[in-house]
Amino acid sequence: MNHFCAHVKHDYQKSAAVVPDILYVQAFQHEYDFVQQGINAGYINQSIAGVLYTEINQAQLLQLQQFQGTDMALIEA
C-alpha cells in the first residue's frame, strides 16, 4: 500500500510548467460556454447550471488570487 501511495504522490507532484494567463481565461470561458450550451440543449437544468457557474466562478477567483500572488512575488524580488 505504501508503494502505491508513493507512486500516486509522485504522479501528482507539481510541475514547473508555466501556463500563460490567457489560456486560463480561455479555459474558464469554454466552461461557461459548455454550461450555456447544456442549458440551451436541455441537458443541464437551471439549478445544476447555478451550481456549475458557482464552481467556475470560485475556481476563477482562486486562479486570479494565484496570479496576484505571483505578481506580488515578482515585484518584491
Radius of gyration: 18 Å
Number of helical regions: 3
**Describe the biggest sheet?**
none
**How far is it from the N-terminal to the C-terminal residue, by CA?**
42 Å
Stretches where pLDDT is under 50 for at least 5 consecutive residues are none
Element string (H = helix, E = strand): HHH
Structural class: mainly alpha
Extended strand count: 0
Based on Cα principal axes, name the global outline: extended
Percent helix among the residues? over 70%
Proportion of beta-strand residues = under 5%
State mean pLDDT (0 to 100 scale): 83
What does this structure look like?
The protein is extended and about 45 Å long. The protein has helices at residues 2-11, 21-41, 46-76. The longest helix is centred in the last third of the chain and has 31 residues, at 46-76. The termini are far apart. The mean pLDDT is 83. It is built from 3 helices and no strands. The chain is an all-alpha fold and 77 residues long. Helix 2 (21-41) runs antiparallel to helix 3.
